[in-house]
Design a protein that fits this description.
Blueprint: H1 3-22, H2 27-40, H3 46-58, H4 63-103, H5 110-137, H6 142-157, H7 162-175
Amino acid sequence: MNKSVWKRAWKVFGVFLKVSSLTLGGGYAMVPIMQWEAERLGWMKKEEFLSLLSVAQSIPGPIAFNTAIIVGKRVAGVPGAVLSGVAITLPPFVAIVAVASLLKPFLNNVYVRAFLLGVYAAVVALVFNVLLGLIKKQRWTMLRLMVIGVGVVLLLINRNTLYAVFAASIWLLYAWGE
């Protein structure tokens, strides 16, 4: 790697660290700021950013993280992708650690425990609701039902097979054009 790639990668790091540190509202609130920064710095035009954004939306995971990595790769190659990913996740990580540290002395308080249990229940319900929506929209075939059934049985027998079962399921379902 030459010095100019690393110089651009560290510039990408600084920009995405700033975006992540100063933006409230989650990933979709960060995207317009990312676009504005990319255009202002001459990294890409609006059309190219929107094209990269559509790719980022099609990849599983947080939109801000996906967009940052794709833009970082476009601007400064692999070092830009890695550093932009670190930069976009660092401020929320630090904030979560800080909040957890502040809450730790109060964890035995009955009201704080009740609040956290309520939040936990709400998060579980929200995730279950999304999962239920995905299940309802799925086109079920005999192959899919068999792959899921075998995968669940294998995971119940031995949880150490998680990655192998996941990879085999993806291969079976998508390699055969299901």
